[in-house]
Amino acid sequence: MVDKKMIYLDNAATTRVYPEVAEAVKKVMVDGYGNASSGHSFGRDAREAVEKARGEIAGFVGCSSEEIFFTSGGTESNNLALRGLARANPEKKHIVTTVIEHPSVLEICRSLEKDGYDVDYVGVDSDGVVSVSDIEKKIRKDTLVVLVMHVNNEIGTVQPVEEISAVCRREKVYFHTDAVQGFNKVDLDLSNVDLMSVSGHKVGAPKGVGFLYVRKGVKILPILTGGGQEGGLRSGTENVPGIVGLAEAVRRTQNSELRTQIKKSRDKIVEGLLKIDGVRINGSLDKRVYNNINVSFYGIEGESLMLMLDRDGIFVSTGSACASSKLKESYVLRAIGVDDMYIHGSIRLTLGPDVVGKEDFVVEKIVEHVSKLREISPFKMKNGKEEKEDN
Fold first, then answer.
1. Which residues contact 371 (CB under 8 A, 6 or more apart)?
2. Which residues are known catalytic residues?
3. What is 255-388's CATH number, 1.10.287.110, 3.90.230.10, 3.90.1150.10, 3.20.20.70?
4. Over the stretch 8-43, which tens digit does the pLDDT of each residue have?
5. Closest to 171 in 3D by CA, of 190, 192, 150
6. Which one of 219, 264, 283, 308 is most buried, by most CB atoms within 10 A?
């Protein structure tokens, strides 16, 4: 059971399922568990629930129901988008993306490179934002698709997706955006977007459900074969409870007043953190999703800070996860030019409603633990400047 006193600041990793969503999911699992592909009335009821959810989500997105295809989440949606386009358009062997995409996009690109595809990985500026002109310069006659995420999962920067998609439409190149972190947080005009990936557990829905928006007319083939569900594009028995829960979550998260409150909490925490010597906020503060703080402290390990905060009931994530006794640095922070001593001292706070009114406590604990870690660090601050201690 989760302690009600905890302050959960890892909402970019996953979110708490709304109680109303949990009730809707439970009702389907217990009372409406029919297979949506079955021909009897119980199955037809399940199909009706799926199509009702599809229609509600399409209405929110601003597209037709026929353009929404349910999947297991963001990773599958990204795979279906890119691999499905590649299968359907074998004459196009060039892809354009950015160096800060989610691993589920970057790993697909690397896999396709082994199959003979040419991939351009476009860099970003020091704020973590990609240039529209830099993307445009990479487009060729044989370009299959341009892939640019809506909001970066680490530093929260909002990319100029609408401008890039307009360029792609003009150049007659497909455009896909991974909207897992931006969906229901940052408005997005789909006028020129051809494909968009979304994951449910980032917006208060259960894990294991998401969708891919595919504009009508896009040439795409399935990557999973079987019973032909989801209009033949994504075979497999539909996750009816998850789909119903996703639609319920979309309804519940449309709260502009709460977003404003969380943004105020974010700004208050940032103000407090910037008073610490040897600190930097990573990524643009202007072009940034309202609930993200990615912060680095010189000369300490973010992993240690995360574990100390954990004992206080404050749950954050780190950009320098420790695995097999070897630190893995953040490729996103590296891409925006963050120094090694700051990369390893980074943590990410992604705020939710339980932080409102507790901002001072969060800052107080971070200041306390950063001070303790610096006492034992060989990398010292002197007069506000970084200085390595002599051995």
1. none
2. 322
3. 3.90.1150.10
4. 999 999 999 999 999 999 999 999 999 999 999 999
5. 192
6. 283
